[in-house]
Amino acid sequence: MKPGRFAYCLAGSVDEALALLAEHGDEAKVLAGGQSLVPLLNMRLAQPQVLVDISKVEALTTTSVDQGLVRYGAATVHRRFEDGDVDDATGGLLRAAAGGIGYRAIRNRGTVGGSLAHADASAEWPVVMAASNASVQVRSASAQRAISARQFVTGFFSNALDDDELITEVCVPQLPADTTWGLHKFVRKLGEFSESLGVAILRWDGDVVSAADIWLGAARDVPVRATPLEERLVGTAQPIDVAEAEAALAGVLPAGGDAEARYRRHLHAVTLSRAVTDAITRRTA
Amino acid sequence: MHAADNGRVGAPRRRNEDRRHLRGQGQFLADIRLQGMRDAVFVRSPVAHGRIVSVQADEAAGRVWTAADLDGVALPIVADAANPAFRSSDYPILAQDKVRFVGEPVAIVLGDDRASAEDAAELVDIDIDPLPVVVDPFSALDDTTTRVHDHWPDNVFVETSADFGDMAAAAAGAAVSVTRKLRMGRQAGVPLETRGCIAYLDRRLDQLVLYSSTQFPHVIRSALAKLLRIEERRLRVVAPDVGGGFGIKNNLYPEEVAICAVALQAGHPVRWIEDRWENMVGSAQARDHAYTMTVHAAADGEILGVDADVLVDSGAYSVWPWTAAMEAGMSAGIIPGPYRIRNYRFRTRTVATNKTPMGPYRGVARPGACFAIERMVDEVAHELGLEPKDVRIRNMIRPDEFPYTSVTGKIYDSGDYAASVVTAAELIDHDAVRAEQKSAAGRFRVGVGYASYTEQTAHGAREWASRGLPVVFGFESATAVLDPSGGLTVRVGIQSHGQGLETTLAQVACEVLGVDPAKVSVVHGDTDTAPYGMGTFASRSMVMAGGATYHACRLLAERIAAVAATILGGEATDYKVADGKVAGPGGILTFAEVAEVAYLQMQHLPRSVEPALEVTYRYRPTVETGTFSYSTHAAVVAVDLDTGSIRVRDYAVAEDCGTIVNPLIVDGQIHGGVAQGLGTALLEQVVFDEHGQPQATTFLDYLLPGAGEVPFLRIKHLETPSPFTVLGMKGMGEGSAIAPPAAVANAVTDALRDLGVSMYSTPMTPEVVWSALDAVTGPAR
Amino acid sequence: MTMAAADVVDVSLRVNGTTRSVHGIPARTNLADLLREHLGLTGTHLGCEHGVCGACTVQLDGQPVRSCIQLAAACDGAEVVTVEGLEGPAVDALRESFSAEHGLQCGFCTPGMLVSCHDIVTRCSDLDEDTAREELAGNLCRCTGYAGIVRAVMRARERLAGTTDVVASSGGGSS
Fold first, then answer.
1. Torsions phi, psi of A5, nearest 5?
2. Class level of CATH domain A7-173
3. Strands A196-205 and B196-202: what pairing?
4. For chain B, which terminus, N or C, has the lower number of CB atoms within 10 Å?
5. What would you report as the CA-atom Rg of chain C, rounded to the nearest whole angstrom?
6. Rounded-to-integer distance, Cα B393 and Cα B412, Å
7. Is the pLDDT of residue B105 over 70?
8. Is it true that domain A179-284 has CATH number 3.30.390.50?
9. What would the pLDDT profile of B315-342 be if each residue is shown by its tens digit?
10. Interface partners of A (3+ CB pairs, < 8 Å)?
11. Which among B194, B340, B302 is positioned nearest to C46, based on CA atoms?
12. Which domain holds residue C135?
């Protein structure tokens, strides 16, 4: 299981990387940690002509805090979130999410930007960044823009980037003081990709929820916002039981399908219910 | 205390093998480098069934081997069972006119490395006219239009049946008759090291050499001699370090024959390393049984009769040497299990489908048989309102009944089956689970389940001959030799791929000769240096190779004594070997002193005493119907009612494999087997879609148990020595993979039965469990 | 560093304490194949080539990584330690405990397992059974059922932490 032929280039700076992307267009792929890309290369499911290695670009591995935002370099590896080597804008959610990604050896190389670019809706970063309302800073040789994490995954393993664009930073708003988070990942064995992933961020006003961001991964080709659950929570501190969650999700997830689809809808309701309970428990703990 | 005292049989001896493996100094197939070696890639069928129209390649691919290139070079594999009703078919080395499963080898290209060979393979175009596919085994039974093998009238490899006792009387006398359909899903064996082979011509020795990650190098050599029509003396097969086999590496595969043929024609060494995708689609698959079981029982739980219908999906081809008949035959033979069942009727059918061929995998058919009978024992117990473990005890053969000839002719030799149930129940604290269940609340349910089995191990010629295979695995060889310096080497035909035979056989040698096992070389795997061996499978190695080693060392001891008597004076029979020395009326000599004379100063030996010190022994068990290990497993599970997840909270094994040579290794085999059994029960599943396309071909979607999925086991050994093996050992390498699916299914059923849910299939995925709950209780729960 | 993308690369890195340079290898070469095919270090094994099984785990700049999905080209200037080069009290404790607890059978997963366990025992101050199992999730073993491995890593950790004396093992033999 060996890759097809490609050319390799180590970018020394963001500008170098962008120039290469401009030159090679859709024949090039960005290589950060390679934990998502190289398995695809090995299986010949992806056969780019050129790999642009950005893993050693210092500007892409630094973290800074700026006006209520924590700006994470796109090539920051998951381990640094897990070990608390970088500030956690969310008061623990990023750290918890990172620690659940695959295995330690994967977390030593996989990056937050690479994970977002890979656009797997069952992976932690796309869902958590959407829930956190992060913005993805993107540059090309000629321009730069910010894309909301909530619009970043556009379809099945598809992202909003143009071929010549590179993620440079992921900017996560620091969660206000009266905020709790909850995370629940359902797997059949430790370390596998989630079969259902629930993230809940609750803003509190006294004893009740004043605003909620509840997002679901591994349900559709993009992370899904569970708006009906958010609406249900505002003004209360009541956990959402599974039946309620299932009913609330009815409008959000496609209906029908076979027994497997039915089970999956139910499972997502369980995950979200547990994520919400997790977030509520953190308030009272 | 002499160092050898803790090297004898029974000592929890650290392994000799560890030294090299802990330093990465093992030599597995892919670690071997030969000058001029090139890598081969098999171009494999992308469809499950079709006629090959053409195989064409861009010139840049280099030479492409197809079936035409093997004409006159290699014969197809033919694995026919002796049963005259068994339908014969050819298993081609490279597909000729048809392809019959996704992944079937069609062509071969070479490259300077694997990546280049894969580049070349992309340039090979196989044009196939697709045919309808036969995927579902039940459909395969009915479909006579679409046939996997055109010259058959249908898709049935073989059908067997038997009727023992009086089922009608059993049914008439029964208080309950319970009928259930059960299904064990198809899975892969997944050794961590994939298959692989290297072939080259050794011109100095005029030999074709095949290095192969195989479990039975000698038998492979004998098979290759026939298929390649090369004299066997001009063939050498070497199994280096093998990274797990579990039966998956215990077949003659077309790739092994093909690589030999290519090496003969290419004129340089040729290597093929199976990648993980190939392993998931091209290595033999396993389990895949469907049962319809009826059990008739009396009110007190006595089983009056068992009626079994067995369907085995054997895939596209019959594998060599086991044949497609073996799985169903073994299942039907052991369904009665450790119980006193005299009214037994079965019908088995083995079908061909457009899937990867099925081969033996740890436990071989018995996990399916155990699943069937052990689930039925619980179902009957539930109907009667009895504790399942008590129904087991009620029906088990008692110690005073041994030797006991089962209704299918298996001769169970020794043990105490009921004691294993009692012990397992104690280990798992059965009463505590029952108490916990009484206060069941919340969204979890707890259950306890048992599964018992008796396992035929180390069976010999008579049993193998009765199975009608092309090879009868009746003996094992060992050569025990003292070199001129007095060091002990044991060369064995058995092949070790994780069982620790380099250590346990050294322990057997130590038992006889008193040499520290760390100072015994156990040589295996190379047909040029190892005496003929039949392979490591069927839980036979410790008994067979241990028996051969034991006797070879005993005979060697006699030779040592004879030489010592020559040197020191007196009768050879007055000299005894112990602790690496020989002592008698004339004094004591070390092995080194004796060997020096036997080899280098043999002028002192009379004609009646042979020079050198080397003995070969061929062990043929006195009883050839096997020695039966047995065990009861107990599982405690916690089921999450919301997700359907099953957590194995506690697991106990009460087992008896007779005399234990090395407790560390025996416990290790138990843990490893249970882990694989839990994989069968909960995680592992090979799925083919309606087009015969395999769906789970990487570790991303084929889930294997990891450290988080296998708990520590509570293990207790009941050591009833076998009455007729050397030192009383029994085989046990496979057994612990047999019971877990049944034990877990019984535990989950125990947990959920009151909610109206029982388990009848594997794997018991969260979806399966939850859907069953949902079907009963509905959305308003 | 050149701006032009190249089909073949030169890689210079430190492996097990020695600088090794390889010239003109295909850019697509992964670190495992660099070690195994070009540098003769076959202790690192390939079990899946998609980053799941862990058999290929090596230390890269002090951290365990999957060498099967790590490009050799991306390792220029790096420090790699394979099973052949593991040294020190942590691996000594691991080798001893793996043998004592029968944490290996066929040996194929063992090199990757040792590299991962080396990281675990040096990084984790508290290693109860649950934590050990979680940390070991990234290394598959098909033979042992993990019991010996879990015991081995916990025992090695205890020994390193000095909380237990080294107990004379039952059974002699080489370790």
1. -70, 140
2. alpha beta
3. unpaired
4. N
5. 17
6. 16
7. yes
8. yes
9. 999 999 999 999 999 999 999 999 999 9
10. B, C
11. B194
12. 89-160
